[in-house]
């Protein structure tokens, strides 16, 4: 009986797996089997045996090598199991040595090397039959591309003669994003083997032995030269930063240590890649300390110190905040900051409402500014400090020691020596009080002060700065957002009163220098506040009206029309036009606003502009191209010449050389559109008989679009009756518009109904932005709910698919608009409450992200799956991470939604590593800890398995760890392996949390179920960059020498 070659291979492998050389010899002899007959380009018996799960004896491996007529063991076969879609060619090939190392069969690998397998062997992979080399594949390339590279086999490779210089920068870059969790270990091994190797150390020992002195310059040269054996380049930094939030942050500190670039270049990279900011985000205390100790700080002034401190405050990290304050103000040339204003830092602390941060700042300011520099607080610092003091007193009233310390600190801050009370009467400071508190008392104080001023003392230079209080106030407390309009009204009234009282004494010089710019300034603020009431109040006031020029530019930059345009406030824009503002105003790029609106699809603004005759500049009209006789004739409203030119062309505008300006026109408008916009009615009617009414202009508008923008029903009906194309269309420059989209943006139901009646609109084709008409209707706030429902019903009747597979599907828009009636309407028309969008989201996930409890409740009642697992990958690597609905609720930070979902039996597990990691990442990124605090209050007993604590430590979340401990968690709790939180911190080489846990009383002598002590674990991981210092600390604490 003849067996197939596949059967012969399988039978042979079964015999080999018995691991008996004598049986193998007998089987081959009795079967009359030639081993070489079993091999081909994609199968090799030696490689197959090596890759079995069993440990095959070295005698059998040697027998196979001897039995087969291999000329060399450096042959390869093509990998038939190569992963589909793998863009690397490296894993496409196998050699016996590559496979032995990949499977950690190091004894076999050593045997192969003895049989002259070359660990430095490379395979040339070719792009095509032409012989163009694609890749030079070595053992490291091969292992990396198949996800088989580990610290064990990498060490084996380097210990057995692999030339480390063959590890190119490209491989290091790839390792940064390597999906295997040991990637940083691999990077450290590579750097350690290559840099500061034995030769380097021996050279230093030789110099020491023979007492050869090395200058600092020579020493720096030698160290830099050694580091540059592996060149750390910008690509490595940028790749790491892009993947830094959770994928591979620690690689940055590794690069920093081994970077052999010039110090200023390294410092430039710190700034360019925002390494400092990211270190604060990651709570990486020791890395920040390393950065601060870097010498170029003394020469560099690019870093925004205030921004860094505020970032640390937002992360609520007291240690890092203190570290930054002490470095920048006490260590680093503190004379640079002698007049520093702590206003914004104090405001951020007020927003964060963190007791520890507030106490730190108050204490620091007393020590540094008052006692150290003998300076007083400025007015704003004092007002904010009072607010913080009151908060602490109310918040910590049961802690007598803290209250005592705060009172002493505040006493120093508010002493006559520390605070100059004369500042209290300055107008800008009273204005700050009004903005800061925005209560009745502060507003009355502002009124009294303004009314007490004589003439125009009200508008000193400093008064212009208060725009930051009203507009640019991200760092200010929520109280500042109250009554902005009221503050501005008080100031305007005061200005009017002063002008009325001093009319006779005002000369033109004062008016031009102070009054006119100040009125313009106030008007611009009113527009930025989007207050039509204030705009109307200023423009309509009889006293101010003669001094207002709506077409002027404040400080040559700001103009009321431009501000209203950028605010996208068509109501104020219309009001300004109605009060004689010019539509010829140009923006900062010297482009007329009407053209900017055409280009950016600002349909509402265009509607207001097109109510007026468009003042087209000839040069702009021709778009810097040669003149067209026809366009010029239309421009001058010359009907006779237009007719003559059309007759000359045989009534075919598309073939006349000077009028061939169709869809791909070089000119701004087509002849028909130009005549329409210039309101040259006779020419327009004449041209309608000869032109293509679907022709588009430079920015992709057709005549129908302009008729809709002008809300010209007569022309709209005419065009529809003459079969105008009502669907989305583009010109050759990819500019295009949809008639229904424009109508929806304008919220003109009559035009929408007209287009619907035409029955030619394709409702299921998204526009260029991927939006469906129903989606745009739902999003438009200018429609009433009943109007939306009516239009949607009409569209559905025509045949729109509700569940059109698109990220902008109507159901999503209705959810994000918080409109339960519209969601209900869509569900009534067969929308799916568990529909899965392209990004893996369900409707319930969108409701959670919208933070609408009522919407979440409605969808759950209608059958939304509260345990749906999102069908997408959270991270960029190949590992799928389960992202559940309840994890999305944690990310949202909305406790009411989270609590509701739990009551609806949403499953939250604490025994899944990926879910724990995702939970901690969500809390960290959102900065919202209420849900996590809820979990510590209700599920603390489930934290004992160690999973959630391990994730907290892995992600370096000291504030969450503090919260867990504050709620009674025992820091010496053991998981099923007998490991404690301190053991986790040591394993993760997290020196910061090792310090914290030891300080909190963690058992330094604990031994886990494997018999490993904390000291043993620290020794085990001491090869790591941060592991060495942890090992020394543990050693010191337990007094081991």
UniProtKB/TrEMBL annotation:
InterPro entries: Ankyrin_rpt (IPR002110), Ankyrin_rpt-contain_sf (IPR036770). It holds the Pfam family Ank_2. ANK repeats lie at residues 699-731, 806-838, 839-871, 977-1009. Keywords: ANK repeat, Repeat. It comes from the Eukaryota. This is Ankyrin. It comes from Piromyces finnis. The lineage of its organism: Eukaryota, Fungi, Fungi incertae sedis, Chytridiomycota, Chytridiomycota incertae sedis.
């Amino acid at each position: 009986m003849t067996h197939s070659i596949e059967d012969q291979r399988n039978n042979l492998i079964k015999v080999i797996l018995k691991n008996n050389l004598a049986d193998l010899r007998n089987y081959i002899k009795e079967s009359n089997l030639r081993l070489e007959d079993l091999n081909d380009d994609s199968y090799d018996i030696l490689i197959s045996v090596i890759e079995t799960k069993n440990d095959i004896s070295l005698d059998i491996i040697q027998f196979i090598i001897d039995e087969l007529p291999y000329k060399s063991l450096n042959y390869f076969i093509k990998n038939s199991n190569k992963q589909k879609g793998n863009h690397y060619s490296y894993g496409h090939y196998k050699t016996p040595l590559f496979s032995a190392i990949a499977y950690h069969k190091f004894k076999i690998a050593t045997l192969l090397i003895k049989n002259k397998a070359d660990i430095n062997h490379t395979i040339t992979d070719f792009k095509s039959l032409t012989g163009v080399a694609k890749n030079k594949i070595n053992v490291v390339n091969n292992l990396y591309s198949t996800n088989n590279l580990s610290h064990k086999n990498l060490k084996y490779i380097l210990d057995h003669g692999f030339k480390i210089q063959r590890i190119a920068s490209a491989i290091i870059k790839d390792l940064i994003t390597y999906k295997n969790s040991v990637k940083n270990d691999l990077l450290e091994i590579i750097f350690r083997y290559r840099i500061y190797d034995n030769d380097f150390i021996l050279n230093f020992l030789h110099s020491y032995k023979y007492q050869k002195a090395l200058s600092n310059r020579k020493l720096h040269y030698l160290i830099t030269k050694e580091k540059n054996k592996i060149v750390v380049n910008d690509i490595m930094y940028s790749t790491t930063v892009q993947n830094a939030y959770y994928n591979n942050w620690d690689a940055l500190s590794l690069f920093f240590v081994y970077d052999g670039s010039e110090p200023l270049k390294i410092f430039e990279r710190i700034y360019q890649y925002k390494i400092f900011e990211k270190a604060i985000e990651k709570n990486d205390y020791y890395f920040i300390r390393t950065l601060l100790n870097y010498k170029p700080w003394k020469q560099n002034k690019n870093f925004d110190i205030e921004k860094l401190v505020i970032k640390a405050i937002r992360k609520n990290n007291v240690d890092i905040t203190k570290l930054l304050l002490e470095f920048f103000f006490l260590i680093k040339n503190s004379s640079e900051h002698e007049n520093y204003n702590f206003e914004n830092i104090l405001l951020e602390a007020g927003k964060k409402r963190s007791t520890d941060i507030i106490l730190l700042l108050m204490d620091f300011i007393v020590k540094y500014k008052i006692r150290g520099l003998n300076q007083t607080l400025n007015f704003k610092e004092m007002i904010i400090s009072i607010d913080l003091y009151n908060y602490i007193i109310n918040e910590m009233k049961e802690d007598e020691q803290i209250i005592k310390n705060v009172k002493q600190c505040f006493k120093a801050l508010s002493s006559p020596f520390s605070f100059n009370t004369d500042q209290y009467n300055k107008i800008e400071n009273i204005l700050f009080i009004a903005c800061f508190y925005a209560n009745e008392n502060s507003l009355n104080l502002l009124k009294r002060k303004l009314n007490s001023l004589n003439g125009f003392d009200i508008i000193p230079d400093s008064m212009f700065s208060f725009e930051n209080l009203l507009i640019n106030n991200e760092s200010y407390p929520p109280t500042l957002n109250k009554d902005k309009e009221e503050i501005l009204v008080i100031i305007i009234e005061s200005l009017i009163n002063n002008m009325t009282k001093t009319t006779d004494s005002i000369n033109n010089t004062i008016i031009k220098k102070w009054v006119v710019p100040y009125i313009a300034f106030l008007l611009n603020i009113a527009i930025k506040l989007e207050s039509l009431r204030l705009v109307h109040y200023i423009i309509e006031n009889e006293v101010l009206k003669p001094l207002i020029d709506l077409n002027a530019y404040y400080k040559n930059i700001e103009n009321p029309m431009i501000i209203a345009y950028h605010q996208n406030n068509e109501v104020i824009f219309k009001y300004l036009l109605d009060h004689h503002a010019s539509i010829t105003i140009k923006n900062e790029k010297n482009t007329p606003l009407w053209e900017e609106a055409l280009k950016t699809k600002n349909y509402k603004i265009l509607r207001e502009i097109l109510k007026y005759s468009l003042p087209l500049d000839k040069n702009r009209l021709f778009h810097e191209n040669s003149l067209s006789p026809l366009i010029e004739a239309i421009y001058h409203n010359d009907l006779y010449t237009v007719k003559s030119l059309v007759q000359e062309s045989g009534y075919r505008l598309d073939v006349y050389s000077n009028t061939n300006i169709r869809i791909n026109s070089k000119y701004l408008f087509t002849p028909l559109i130009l005549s329409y916009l210039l309101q040259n009615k006779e020419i327009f009617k004449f041209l309608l008989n000869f032109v293509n009414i679907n022709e588009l202009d430079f920015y992709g508008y057709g005549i129908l679009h302009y008729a809709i923008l002008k809300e010209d029903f007569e022309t709209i009906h005419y065009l529809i009756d003459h079969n105008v194309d009502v669907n989305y269309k583009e010109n050759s420059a990819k500019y295009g518009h949809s008639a229904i989209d424009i109508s929806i943006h304008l919220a003109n139901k009559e035009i929408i109904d007209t287009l619907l009646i035409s029955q030619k609109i394709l409702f299921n084709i998204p526009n260029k932005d991927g939006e469906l008409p129903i989606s745009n209707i739902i999003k438009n706030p200018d429609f009433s709910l009943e109007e939306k429902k009516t239009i949607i019903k009409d569209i559905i009747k025509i045949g729109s698919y509700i569940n059109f597979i698109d990220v902008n599907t109507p159901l999503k828009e209705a959810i994000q608009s918080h409109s339960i009636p519209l969601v209900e309407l869509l569900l009534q028309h067969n929308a799916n409450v568990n529909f899965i969008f392209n990004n893996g989201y369900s409707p319930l996930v969108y409701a959670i992200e919208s933070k609408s409890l009522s919407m979440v409740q409605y969808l759950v009642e209608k059958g939304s799956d509260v345990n749906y697992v999102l069908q997408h990958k959270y991270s960029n690597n190949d590992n799928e991470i389960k992202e559940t609905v309840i994890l999305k609720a944690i990310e949202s930070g909305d406790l009411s939604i989270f609590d509701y979902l739990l009551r609806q039996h949403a499953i939250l597990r604490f025994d899944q590593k990926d879910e724990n990691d995702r939970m901690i990442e969500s809390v960290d990124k959102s900065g919202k800890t209420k849900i996590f605090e809820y979990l510590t209050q209700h599920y603390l007993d489930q934290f004992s398995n160690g999973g959630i604590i391990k994730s907290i430590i892995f992600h370096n979340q000291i504030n969450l760890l503090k919260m867990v401990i504050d709620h009674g968690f025992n820091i010496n709790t053991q998981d099923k392996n007998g490991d404690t939180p301190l053991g986790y911190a040591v394993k993760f080489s997290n020196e910061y949390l090792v310090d914290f846990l030891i300080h909190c009383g963690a058992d330094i002598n604990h031994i886990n179920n494997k018999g490993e002590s904390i000291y043993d674990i620290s020794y085990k991981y001491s090869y790591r960059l941060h592991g060495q210092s942890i090992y020394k600390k543990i050693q010191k604490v337990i007094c081991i020498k």
